[in-house]
Amino acid sequence: MGRGINETSARRSRRTIGRRVIGAGFAGAAMAGALAFAAAPASAEPLPKVEPTVENAAPTLDNIKLGIDRAVATNPELGPLGEIALSLFPKY
Q: In whole angstroms, what is the distance from residue 12 CA to residue 36 CA?
């Protein structure tokens, strides 16, 4: 038997809703991209270059060393491995 009028129109409306949702998603993405582009200043200067040195990396290296020390303190079996790991860091 043929399909009823209600089934056919319901299927069409689901397709239409799906297309509208997809279209709205693309439009939203385009709008967000346009706003991000417009928000960037036209005469933005490039960021200054920071040369990687031990002094610049000191806070990060200190955090890594502290993490290794804490790991060795909580797991004494990692003692030799912790000493090896700490020996790989520069002395300053």
A: 36
Contact 47, 65 (CB under 8 A): no
What is the mean predicted confidence (pLDDT) over 39-44? 63
Q: Give the separation between CA 52 and CA 55, rounded to whole angstroms.
A: 8
Residues 6+ apart with CB under 8 A from 72: 78, 79, 82
> For 73-91, how does the pLDDT look when each residue is reduced to its tens digit (9 = 90+)?
999 998 999 999 989 887 7
Closest residue by Cα to residue 81 from 65, 68, 70, 90: 68
Q: Model's pTM, two decimal places?
A: 0.39
Please give the angle made by the CA atoms of 29, 34 and 40, to the nearest 5 degrees. 130
